[in-house]
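Thought: the user wants the 3D structure for the chain below. I'll pass the sequence to the structure tool as-is, report back what it returns, then summarize two notable features.
Action: structure_tool
Action Input:
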Amino acid sequence: MLLGAAGHEVVSCVGGGDELIESLGDGTEADVAILDIRMPPEPEGGLVTAERLRAAHPQMGLLLLSHYAETHYLMRILDIGTDRIGYRLKEKIASVDVLGDTLERIHAGEIVIEPVLAKRLVERPRGREEKALSELSEREEEVLKLMAEGRSNPGIAGQLYISPKAVEKHVASILSKLGIPPDDTGHHRRVLAVLTYLRARWVET
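Observation:
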């Protein structure tokens, strides 16, 4: 109902990962697959299915849903990919606007991370990362949190009510202070750099 209300067409609806893979093998095309992390046939079947889909359909977007914001789920998802992918809490996307925004951003090539998890990662620095993050200004910390959610520069500007130019300056300063090296490809540099940084420093305990 939410998908229909948001203007999306549901091309397949199945109960498990194997059925989803099979349905896509008969020529059915989809822009984004929505998966429950704990869907059949395995305890974390959604993650396994997402891995299979990314290998077989690399251009397809993936939205993984869960009742819980778990760091180890995020680490698995980042191993699957850092573009056209999302991890959201079920309770947070139970509205047409939020679901529509999430799907549109994934389809556009972004990564979308549940804000509460992104905030938790940014606000729990350790060791040398704590020192690096302590050098950020309050505004830069706000920008970093939104970057960790996968927000684009215009998206960050809209959230903080500042100009895109100001966001660019903050992003450049953040990357410099965190010691993130330049990415020659320029492919989602701000997102990939920060997510790589977070992935390198966070291990579920």
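Final Answer: Structure generated. The domain at 128-202 is CATH 1.10.10.10 (Arc Repressor Mutant, subunit A). The chain has two domains: 2-123, 128-202.
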